[in-house]
Amino acid sequence: MPRAFLIGAVPTALFLLAALLSLAWTPHDVEALQISARLLPPGGDYLLGTDQFGRDLLSMLMVGARTSIAVALVAVGIGMGLGVPLGLAAAATRGSLLDEIIMRGNDLIFAFPSLVIAILITAVFGPSAVNAILAIGIFNIPVFARVARGGALSLWTLDYVRAARVAGKGSVRISAEHILPNIANLLIVQATIQFSLGILAEAALSYVGLGAQPPTPSWGRMLAEAQTMIYTAPRLALLPGLAIVAMVLGLNLMGDGLRDMLDPRLRRVRA
Fold first, then answer.
1. Which residue segments constitute the domains of the chain, with CATH numbers given?
2. Which of 174, 171, 115, 122 shows the shortest CA–CA distance to 139?
């Protein structure tokens, strides 16, 4: 197993465990404001100290991990669920009107970053975690469509796919039985990368007030709230910032490791 995968799996697993644990238990209530306990240093009942509102930082980080992971995971699911079928359809009808419509639609979405899409969505429906999911998910659709189409195009010219067509199988069946299983490794690696980018996007949207809304903790909003306390209590910004960096770095290392494991060409090179 590649060393990069093992190194990246450590912080990723820790944050996943923290997110799962926060569903049932946190050291303190993240919605309880205790002004008398504001800005306490690490130690005692508050392992990482408290913020300017007296909330436990460890509990905030745990629930923030749950928020970031949930938003990124659902957004990646939306991107894969819609993008992969579109990419397979475009590859199966290469050069047709359908192919042109799908790819030009992808170009149109790519022209608007997820932050701009989020602004458009929240201008109509208001800021929320659900709208952040929609914004990130919509941006992920063309990413997976392009990966699926690029991987599928190289397979449609192979002999076993031609044999399947001669045997009477339709494009949909060939895509499902022969194309999709053989590009699954590409999609898995891309999903890992998009997951890490989803964590960053969620933090950025929450930072500007377009993501999860109070009282739900979010790493991005914790950074935004810590701006005025950066010199008084730098750990308020340092801890969520390090959490974002560790999670994104871990996922990227896992993506590199998965690519090494799933790509036979890389395995031969390393061998």
1. 65-270 (1.10.3720.10)
2. 115
